[in-house]
Design a protein that fits this description.
- The protein has about 190 residues and is mainly alpha-helical.
- Helix content is about 70%, strand content about 0%.
- The protein is built from nine helices and no strands.
- Helix 1 crosses helix 4, helix 4 runs antiparallel to helix 5 and helix 7 crosses helix 8.
- The longest helix is centred in the middle third of the chain and has 26 residues.
- The chain is elongated, with a radius of gyration of 19 Å.
């Protein structure tokens, strides 16, 4: 199977999974539904996945990779970025959550999947810890593991509140609020 054909197939299955998660928790989805929504047959599904959970895990990994890219995007534009110089319009975290709102709603609101919640927290914790470890301005008396945990919990807390409020606020509002909250801590 050609690479572009495999990519199209993978994209179709990912899109189908995300679409179905908007209406159903994972345990209520069938492979038949996924295939029908993707416009592909069961044989094609089984060429790529042995069960729907494998597809779900693959979707999760792709979304978490996108989350990490969203976090680093402002730094790519300005490597000397700090809390004081951060422009709220360059924050990409909540754009990412909005882009994958059905996935996050399925984890935090509808499905309450503790394993995936922990995976997302762990990735953010690792990201914040690495960032703190290499920064020159970090207070050396602060336990970086605890500070990274605080930061990961805080940003996820904002995201969860937004999810539980059915994404009521727009992304620009959340970005502005995050910037203000970050400035409170400096």
């Amino acid at each position: 199977m050609s690479s572009s054909r495999t990519e199209k197939t993978t994209h179709a299955f990912h899109t189908a999974m995300l679409s179905l998660l908007e209406k159903h928790p994972l345990d209520q989805l069938s492979i038949t539904q996924i295939c029908h929504t993707a416009g592909l047959n069961r044989g094609t599904f089984y060429l790529h996945y042995n069960k729907k959970e494998a597809l779900y895990e693959e979707v999760m990994e792709a979304i978490i990779d996108d989350l990490l890219d969203a976090y680093f995007e402002p730094y790519e534009k300005n490597p000397q970025l700090s809390t004081q110089t951060l422009d709220a319009s360059t924050i990409s975290f909540f754009d990412h959550i909005s882009k994958y709102r059905s996935f996050y709603a399925s984890i935090y609101k509808y499905d309450a999947n503790a394993h995936l919640q922990k995976c997302i927290y762990d990735k953010l914790h690792e990201l914040f810890y690495t960032d703190l470890f290499y920064r020159k301005d970090t207070d050396q008396t602060i336990d970086l593991v605890l500070l990274a945990g605080y930061q990961a919990g805080a940003i996820l807390g904002m995201a969860r509140t937004w999810i539980f409020n059915d994404f009521k606020d727009d992304v620009a509002h959340l970005n502005t609020q995050l910037k203000k909250i970050m400035l409170l801590n400096t």
